[in-house]
Design goal:
The structure is a homodimer of 336-residue chains.
Chain A (H helix, E strand, L loop, with lengths): L13 H8 L3 H8 L8 H14 L5 H8 L4 E6 L5 H16 L3 E6 L4 H13 L4 E5 L5 H9 L3 E4 L9 E4 L2 H14 L5 E6 L4 H17 L7 E5 L4 H13 L7 E3 L3 H13 L9 E6 L4 H4 L4 E4 L2 H16 L6 E3 L3 E3 L2
Parallel strand pairs in A: 1-2, 1-3, 3-4, 4-5, 5-11, 6-7, 6-8, 8-9, 9-10
Antiparallel strand pairs in A: 10-12
Helix pairs in contact in A: 1-2, 1-3, 2-13, 5-13, 6-7, 8-9, 10-11
Keywords (chains A, B): DNA-binding, Transcription, Transcription regulation
Pfam families (chains A, B): LacI (PF00356), Peripla_BP_3 (PF13377)
InterPro entries (chains A, B): Cro/C1-type_HTH (IPR001387), HTH_LacI (IPR000843), LacI/GalR-like_sensor (IPR046335), Lambda_DNA-bd_dom_sf (IPR010982), Peripla_BP_I (IPR028082)
Chain lengths: 336, 336
């Protein structure tokens, strides 16, 4: 921390001002930095009075950084042709733009070597911050974290632990899927997942099974199947094939992503199984296209369009020298 | 052009070597620049002999550029959450990476002001080239073209005319959709389109109507409806609403993009019209997800996964000082 402060005296933090003003840290940060448009006149006045009264001093490093010429923030994201990733990118791009930054986007393909390559290139471009969607553990990422680069992790947490994070409560999302199917009195239940699942995927599956256990099903009563690969479409298809190989389709199926649900749907379509009449599928993501062409899919809606604002707020807090924090956004099951 | 040449003597171009060697300009360019892995030993030898015999001299500007430190190419693309745009971005990113470049991606939202903003930022980053997907006319773009920056246009042509281009024959794509529906003996035909359509969209619609005229339908016999907006999903829904307002659904409907077809599908689903039984829809793009969750949609497949290689070949030709050219890739109607 680079704050100059008298020995023995704790500095007044943005968080202290925010708590006393009854607003978010990001709001205080914006007002202190002269961005007063998004708050009401009353809020601006209340915060400014508290800043004076408490003796809050803005972090100089943050301000200096923000005034440097570069206004670029780099987003590293896997698999741009995954609709969920595209939705996050679009949302963050819009939020950065309205905060005066431009976003450049790099496709890591979920690979550590490419993530490192792009981190090196971006570092040479003097970007102001990093947004890493679904990070994987890699050397350059650990080095960047160790240097204290401003990084916000999205979707998956920092593989080294800690750090600023925007995402959802994935266990709760899986539990909500279980509750939904249970409430419809479906007891013949199954779940499919990728063999090499991310922490997010594992948490969703874990939440689903744990909730069903609480509701009275033994683990053996919940059928499970997995398949290898990185494409969730193909994983969904192959895992569903294994699930129903020599067995009937379950009456309820949880897929930890909509793309896996699309894969299972294709197998059902090809084999004459009617969705949702014969098998109710619950996915996660609530991709924008579901409302248009997948009316058979109930899905846990993740508010990707709100991710942008949260990510930018977290970045600005990091620039202001605040401690990184986690922001879990509310998800919601959309029944179709 | 920066080629040094004796007065009165035409320089030997890559194209001349390529024609005599019976290979592509890109292949000659790669071999001349020492990238011999992708060609056979015979081809490399034949090209090298011709280079010596004809006295071809590589363009120094291209070589110098290529040796500069930056290995960044900027892609400007509208609406990253359009699956077609995402498919182009993924393909170009992979091709650039295997050629030793990294791609950074900027979302222009189909807006001239944002296109200009990103062009300014990218210029300050000393990128080696630009790929502009679906360009719109803008000041900074015209300035960049006038400076001779290496730019490859994708999807839509250079709004100022000329330049390197990768895309498909959009009129032919529309005509193919007409032929497909005609061959199924469907004569009750309609087309929907955005009020502010791009040249690509207009060409597809024009090709559809022109072909039906050739087949014997008068223009009045082909029902048309349009709707304003930038989201093709919403345009498709609203235009289909206008089309069927007080009229029955047509037996065949051409939508100049798959997203518009999804919009029309949603209206059909909501109103109990069965697709494809009651109305056959033909789209354009053949989005990857169609095979998984839109088995009712016949679509003109655009080989987006091949776009990357073509775009990089064109960029390398521009770096070598070659004249820009147009590359139309073969499309194919996929019947589902």
């Amino acid at each position: 921390m680079n704050k100059q402060r008298p020995f023995g005296q704790e500095p007044v933090s943005l968080a202290t001002v925010a708590a006393q003003a009854g607003v978010s840290v990001a709001t205080v940060s914006r007002i202190v930095n002269g961005e007063t448009r998004r708050a009401s006149a009353e809020t601006v006045e209340r915060v400014q009075k508290l800043v004076a009264a408490l003796g809050y001093r803005p972090n100089r490093v943050g301000r200096t950084l923000r005034r440097r010429e570069s206004c670029i923030v780099a987003m590293l994201s896997p698999n741009l042709d995954n609709p969920a990733m595209a939705a996050i990118a679009a949302s963050v791009e819009a939020a950065l733009r309205s905060a005066g930054y431009v976003m450049i986007l790099c496709d890591t393909h979920d690979r550590a070597d490419l993530q490192d390559e792009y981190l090196h290139v971006m570092r040479s471009q003097v970007v102001q911050g990093y947004i890493v969607v679904n990070p994987v553990r890699s050397e350059a990422l650990s080095a960047s974290i160790a240097r204290g680069d401003p990084i916000v992790f999205v979707g998956r947490r920092n593989p080294d632990g800690g750090g600023a994070f925007v995402g959802i409560d994935n266990r709760r999302a899986g539990a909500d899927a279980a509750d939904h199917l249970w409430a419809r009195e479906i007891r013949d239940l199954a779940v499919i997942h990728p063999t090499q699942g991310s922490s997010a995927t594992r948490d969703r599956v874990h939440g689903f099974i744990t909730r069903l256990r609480e509701l009275g099903l033994s683990d053996g009563e919940v059928r499970q199947a997995e398949a290898p690969g990185l494409s969730h479409l193909e994983v969904g298809y192959a895992a569903a094939q294994r699930l129903v190989d020599g067995h009937p389709w379950p009456q309820g199926l949880f897929c930890p992503s909509d793309l896996m649900a699309y894969g299972a749907y294709r197998l059902a379509f090809e084999t004459g199984v009617r969705i949702p009449e014969d098998c109710r599928i619950v996915g996660v993501d609530d991709n924008k296209l579901n409302a248009w062409i997948a009316p058979w899919l109930t899905s846990v809606h993740i508010p990707y369009t709100d991710f942008g604002t949260e990510v930018v707020d977290q970045l600005q807090a990091l620039w202001d020298g605040e401690q990184p924090s986690e922001q879990l956004l509310p998800h919601k099951l959309i029944v179709r």
